[in-house]
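debug: dumping io for the single-chain case to check the tokenizer round-trip. Nothing else runs in this session.
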Amino acid sequence: MASQAGKDALLRLIREGKPLSFGQQLQLTFTLSLPAILANASAMVMQFIDAAMVGQLGADDSASVGLMGSTNWLFEGVLSAFAAGYAVQVAHLLGAKRNADARQVVRQAIVVCLLFSGLLAGLGLLLCKPLPVWLGAEAHIRSNATIYFGTFMLFVPFFMVDIVASSMLRSSGNMRVPSALNILMCVLDVIFNFLFIFPTREVSLLGHPVTMPGAGLGVMGAALGTACAGFVIAMLMMYYLVFRSNDLRLTLDKGSFKPTWSTFKKAVNISTPMGLQHTMMCCAIIVITGIVAPLGSIALAANSFGITAESLCYMSGYGIADASTTLIGQSLGAKRQRLTRSFAWINVLTGMVIMGCMAILMFVFAPELMGFMSPVPEVVELGARCLRVEAWAEPLFAASIIGYGVFVGAGYTLVPCGINLVSLWIVRLGLSALLVKTMGLYGVWMAMSIELCFRGIIYLVWLSSKRWMKKAVID
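debug: decoded output
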């Protein structure tokens, strides 16, 4: 409670225009970042366990799930981008001490985002059958890939409820509740996966045989496990937002849920570049998946597990990026540009140091990380080589992740989105197509490492200018 009270007191200093020392800025950065980092860490650990569960089914089932991973990320990212258009407005309004107006934005966001998610779910269901074919998957894994993706799409509206509620709470500076609930979701995900993926069987517990129930649904069970966990957490997250949040609970006053054009237009101006960027980035990653798929199930599984293992490095970066969006949004809402710039550099440099340290660990323990997820020696050896070449790019990857969070907090999304698109489509995709011919999957990951370094350098250059603050989308 003491740290929570201290965090709230420091946020009030921002809103009230009072000075913050370097130590207080660093304290606020870590206070807001730590819950998100812990939630990401929990999510990554659970993804490891998920991957290990599916990995026990064999390389083909692992490949069918890994094939659709980038497309799932595409849909999730578009949902997050759309919700961010409203969450950034909420952060600005809270920074300006216009709490009642912020709650009005929350009401509108719930309605508009749910309608949008329904349309997106329908599109996903239409694509679930032809998509594995378009991605160049081998015929024997297409059916499971379709089942996995289609099941995921059915639950998209519930994922959107979670995204909207958690993004609104984070914009108010409440990182603890979304992070705690996301940790719980990871635990539930593993439990549901354990029940849905495997059939009823006997296991040894403390030397005694125990019958474990299971549905034996395989790949479909993996999708259902994630969906059921997401449904439970979405309901809890929305309950806290509506009834418990200090600044945003809707029971504090009466208001209309009817969307207004001005709020919607501002949300679209913020979220459209983000959504288009994420769509184009994911399309590029899907193209890269298509480049990897003809290499066979071993390469596809190694690529999928390698991406999961690498997430242990960048989980801290995304946690700090969440804190950056809140701090930048509220600082700009309070018209404090010098403080905004200070927070931006503190967050970016802190993230680069942390992700650099994580990269060292990933380099050293790459075989162990891959071995935890797959019993196939060829998958482990190939994945470990890929992780080690990518580890060199992590500090500059941090600069791009957190720099993007800074720009989102400012509502300045057009130029950063352009940077990401040029970097991914021209540098990574071009190099991947070139290097895969002679180096296979290792060449694809080398291309990724080069591209991440290039992107991070561009972000640092752009952050050093003041144009992004002048272009901020605030009232």
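debug: round-trip ok. The chain has 18 helices and two strands.
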